[in-house]
Design a protein that fits this description.
Blueprint: H1 2-32, H2 35-57, H3 64-83, H4 86-89, H5 93-116, H6 122-150, H7 159-170
Helix pairs in contact: 1-2, 1-3, 2-3, 3-5, 5-6, 5-7, 6-7
């Protein structure tokens, strides 16, 4: 019992620290007039808190471990990746994040399937989670393409980048 209580406290502390770190960066970016990074931080905070609101205001139960994992991923992608410029400074940062997002999406898909069909066969769970992760990876690539085309972002570096991202999503 003590171990689960400690784990719960660690997960809550991780969530709080990550959100506060991004909130601090948000205030810092506003103070510098850095609207782009302030927007990234504001979006990251909103997305980090999304599973918590889902757990609070729906019948779908989102385990605290998933919420902490999700917040850590958003912190790495939005805060370290964009604000900290890890995409440019750390080789393969994008591929690393796509591999993590594939696992995160598979985990989330498994939670979703198990909430609706608790007696689902293991093969169905495996097929669904893999398909769910790949589908969300594809949707993300469409999002990147759209931003590149419509807003002038440079999120995709060509077909090789897109294919490497999708392969990492499947990992």
């Amino acid at each position: 019992m003590a171990d689960s209580s400690l784990l719960l406290r660690v997960q809550i502390a991780l969530l709080v620290v990550l959100v506060l770190a991004v909130a601090g960066a948000f205030v810092w970016a506003l103070g510098r007039g850095d609207w782009r990074n302030a927007g990234v931080c504001a979006g990251a905070i909103a997305v980090m808190l999304l599973p918590m609101f889902l757990a609070r205001f729906s019948t779908f139960r989102v385990p605290l471990g998933f919420q902490a994992f999700f917040a850590a991923f958003i912190f790495c992608a939005a805060f370290l990746g964009s604000v900290g410029d890890f995409y440019a400074r750390v080789p393969r940062w994008d591929i690393f994040l796509h591999a993590i997002s594939g696992a995160l999406c598979a985990y989330g898909g498994g939670l979703l399937l198990q909430s609706e069909h608790p007696d689902a066969r293991p093969r169905l769970v495996a097929l669904f989670t893999a398909s769910f992760a790949l589908a969300l990876g594809g949707v993300w690539e469409i999002y990147e393409f759209t931003l590149d085309q419509r807003v002038g972002q440079h999120m995709q570096m060509g077909a090789n980048d897109t294919m490497h991202d999708l392969i990492a999503d499947a990992a």
